Amino acid sequence: MGQRYFLEQSPSADAPEIILSGAEAQHLIKVMRGKPGTVVELFDGSGVEWEARILDVRRNDVTLEVLGSEMVSREPALQLTLGIALPKGDRQKWVIGKLVELGVYQVVPLVTENGVAQPVEKAMGRLRRQVVEASKQCGRNHLMRICEPCTLSVFLEQQFHQAWIAHPLSAEDVSGIQSTTVAALNIESGTAGIAIGPEGGFSVAEVSKAMTAGWEPIELGSRILRIETAAMAVAAQLLLGR
Ligand code: SAM
Q1: For 92-137, what is each residue's pLDDT tens digit?
Q2: Which of 145, 132, 144 has the alpha carbon at shortest distance from 42?
């Protein structure tokens, strides 16, 4: 896969030329040192992929000649939604990039009883930028959605063909919650939702509420995984190779 750039605005279907501007143009000009004649790939998040040749490089924008365009989907048949009580700082950005690569459909930042502060609008913007960066790298033409943060209760109202809440079972657990094992994660198409808790875990009340709403508790093994490991592990289990 060659150089890929993201178009903030979709060009008209029959446009012979495309102007690349903003951060993507700066990347092409200053980082990649793009020169006239170089052929690159463009995408706008709708599934369309353009092949285009650089015609003119100016200070702030770049003109490209359209060589061709086609719909190219690299999406898995399963639309996987992860509700995650996101970790703090750079760990957020990192896990979002990995979930884009794995083919997750959307991420819903969760507000939970034991969670830390949720991303503010500026942080959400950074996460959406990370989605674009990861999509450029992995060749995805549809952008993974980052939804507005919501409470676990609201997330549990969403309808999926299969829905799980990841909850480790500990030897001291006296809640009586019966979790199923990771082998249950085996749906190949349709929709699935999985909730991943904060560092402090979901409360027993939250897991009970999820079970009442039809969500199945699932355990991922005898070791406690960090939030981002748990999110990547379930995504890989369902999406890798698809
Ligand atoms: N002390 C917390 C607890 O007991 O729930 C650990 C939380 S863990 C760092 C963060 C989240 O990752 C958990 O709420 C759960 O959703 C998921 N998780 C981590 N390890 C897991 C495991 N072995 N089984 C199921 N879920 C796990």
Answers
A1: 999 999 999 999 999 999 999 998 766 677 888 999 999 999 999 9
A2: 132
Find the residues whose C-beta lies inside 6 A of ligand 1. Answer: 166-168, 196-197, 199, 201-202, 219-221, 223-227, 230
Q: Give per-residue burial for 91-102: e unless 16+ CB within 10 Å, then b.
A: ebbebbbbbbbb
Q: Does the global pTM surpass 0.85? A: yes
- Exposed, middle or buried by CB within 10 Å (0-12, 13-18, 19+), for 148? exposed
Per mean pLDDT, which range of 118-127, 151-160, 161-170, 230-239 is the poorest? 118-127
Ligand 1 atom with the shortest distance to the CA of 196: 16
**pLDDT tens for each residue of 181-208:** 888 899 999 999 999 999 999 999 999 9
Residue 186, both tokens = 């085996």
Closest C-alpha to 146, from 110, 117, 179, 106: 106
Structure-token match 């199945």, residue found = 216
| From 177, 225, 228, mutation site for ligand 1 pocket: most ligand atoms within 8 A of C-beta | 225
Q: What spacing in Å lies between the alpha carbon of 59 and ligand 1's midpoint?
A: 49
- Phi, psi angle pair for 183, to nearest 5°: -60, -20
Closest among 10, 11, 3 to 35, alpha carbons compared: 3
Atom of ligand 1 nearest to the CA of 165: 16
Record the tokens describing residue 75, joined without a space.
């999406």
Q: Are 80 and 100 in contact (CB under 8 A)?
A: no
Query: What separation in Å is there between the alpha carbon of 122 and the centre of ligand 1?
Result: 28
